[in-house]
Amino acid sequence: MLDLLRGAGPAGLGRAELATRTGLTPQAVSKITARLGADGLIAEAGRAASTGGKPRTLLRLVPQARHAAGVHVDRDELRAVRVDLAGRVVGECRGPLDFGAGPEAVVEAVVRAVARVADPVGLPLLGVGVVAPGPLDHRAGTMGRVTGFPSWKGFPLRGVLQGRLGLPVLLDKDTNAGAAAAAGAWLRATWPDADADGDAELVADAAGGAGGVADAYGYAGGGPRTCVYLHVGTGLGAGLWLGGGVYRGARSAAGEFGHQVLLMDGPPCRCGARGCVEVLCLGAVARGDLPEAARILGEAAANLVALLDVDRVLLGGRVVEAAPDVFVAGVGAVLAARALDPARPVVALAGAGVAEGAAELALGPVFGRAE
Known about the structure:
single chain; globular
């Protein structure tokens, strides 16, 4: 029910519509909404226009009633955000990080960052989503042998952070959070943000404007269908949004996109193979040849699209953010050239950061999504 009210935005829904959509009886809906209202999670949004009878009372989510935090642990930087129930960022901090300094140093940095973004006088956080480079075991909450950082293998990051923070902690790969951020971007577009003057304005997406999220991503009123999120930063990876949720695979290993081999006997990659898309793409970035980096990324993306038949390819990460037009155009050109079907996927910017996606994952249980 909370998920339905979140998707409805400030306009809200009536109890009868909630009963229809959930399959619950009107009596059950009344009891549940009364309890949610007593907890401060929902409130009246006004009355619907009368159709001959008594005007219906509409209910809406109260976004500021609860908050969650998201932390993006990158190889050289940490960014943390605090978001409300609509996924809007209400607190943020970032700073340098040395992932190679080891787990203990990173744990301390995460604890400090969560303390900085938390509201010292408000309600406690519902939970914290922490995302890091893979591979890692999402279910067990342990790190894998991160490429270039073997000392992380087996470290129980989720359990250690839960003990330090005293809060529920979710651990996932940064690319999975990027995929979740895509869903969050659609939802945030239904909620107004308050600017410095107190006026309400819709969240603008990467396509340029309120309402553009649905246009760019093709969301038909219920969130994204199928998409891949490609992250280009200090590494290269993919997040998969399939069947209405993040697809992680049986061993949390899905999305190791950066280590598909594009060039047999190519330059050595830090994973131990040769000619991986990661080493080729980031090598072009290092040389300053961003069009070539975009072309390489596009070739790898075309392989993924041919395999999964997705609707959208969303791009993110600091390298993409530094030259968005180059990467959107370059990847789009390759997909167009290699398309076997005229209805090729749309290529767009992700429209939200990985830390926001981490917070979105942390909010999942509140809205009935088991992450």
